[in-house]
Design brief:
Strand content of chain A: under 5%
Oligomer: heterodimer
Order of helices and strands of chain B: HEHHEEH
Strand content of chain B: 15-25%
Shape of chain A: rod-shaped
Number of strands of chain A: 0
Number of helices of chain B: 4
CATH architecture of chain B: Orthogonal Bundle
CATH class of chain B: Mainly Alpha
Helix content of chain B: 55-70%
Structural class of chain A: mainly alpha
Order of helices and strands of chain A: HHHHHH
Radius of gyration of chain A: 27 Å
Helix content of chain A: over 70%
Shape of chain B: globular
Strand order of the largest sheet of chain B: 1-3-2
Radius of gyration of chain B: 17 Å
Largest interface: A-B, 23 and 22 residues
Distance between the termini of chain A: 20 Å
Chain lengths: 148, 120
């Protein structure tokens, strides 16, 4: 009964993994202390309220640092969009670009590549940014499932 | 009395009450809860873990109390023992000074508002 309750509280908590561990530890101690003083698990659960109630009151304070669900979702969408857009642009521009030695005499569009100037190839930068954002997106997904 | 007023009074005083309990001696969650209920349940209502723990977290975050893990001989596990920090001592004495002035001030208004004898 106690295990089930704690499991449900764990599911209701939407804070960081570290904070979740701290709250669950305290909850386990609350049960242990109460049993030690002659209370039953049922009595403790009645006092704690529903897992949802307990989770929401107890994490109100801990949430302050801004690790709320909304912020996490927003961050995820941003990095995912950045990854998709920059990877798509870099792939499209790379595939439509003519080889470096092709000049003139083209059937359709003439694609003259001006080397030098900026120094660093913009599409390479986009590719790096895209891969970084993709890694960050994957990291967030992994983190999300680890927290659950 | 309307529970809204009780909630408001409680919100202002519970942090100070918990600091007092921790100041008395090094103590742990369940003991704080039982001590609190022993002294206040009749007036403030029965306190639950969901009320006490967030306040303890807040006080610790503010650096007013500190905790250490220690053995719990009775159940073979571990307990988190809370004690007051130097900053906590200072904050508590300031709060108590303010509270004393505050009650004198509020009582002054109450005494002047001429409530009928039976409600005094």
């Amino acid at each position: 009964m106690k295990e089930k309750y704690i499991e449900q509280v764990k599911r209701e908590l939407t804070i960081s993994r570290k904070q979740k561990i701290a709250i669950i530890r305290d909850l386990e101690e609350a049960f242990a202390s109460a049993l030690e003083h002659g209370e039953t698990e049922q009595q403790v659960i009645e006092r704690l309220g529903t897992p949802k109630e307990f989770a929401s009151t107890v994490q109100e304070e801990k949430k302050g640092a801004g690790h709320g669900r909304a912020k996490r979702v927003a961050l995820f969408i941003c990095t995912f969009a950045l990854a998709t857009v920059s990877l798509a642009i870099s792939v499209i521009s790379k595939s439509s670009r003519a080889p470096a030695d092709a000049i003139g005499a083209a059937d359709a569009m003439t694609n003259i590549q001006v080397e030098g100037g900026v120094g660093v190839d913009l599409t390479s930068i986009l590719l790096v940014v895209g891969i970084a954002a993709l890694v960050l997106t994957v990291f967030q997904i992994v983190n999300y499932f680890r927290k659950r | 009395m309307d529970s809204k007023y009780v909630q408001q009074f409680k919100r202002g005083s519970l942090e100070m009450i918990l600091l007092c309990l921790v100041a008395k001696k090094e103590t742990y969650g369940y003991e704080i809860l039982t001590e609190l209920n022993k002294g206040s349940a009749a007036v403030l209502g029965y306190a639950r873990e969901g009320t006490v723990y967030p306040i303890l977290y807040r006080l610790q975050e503010a650096g007013l109390i500190q905790s250490r893990m220690g053995p719990a001989p009775a159940n073979g596990g571990e307990k988190k023992y809370y004690s007051l920090t130097v900053q906590g001592h200072k904050a508590l004495s300031e709060m108590v000074t303010f509270w004393r002035d505050y009650t004198v001030c509020v009582n002054g208004f109450i005494d002047e508002c001429n409530l009928s004898e039976e409600t005094k």
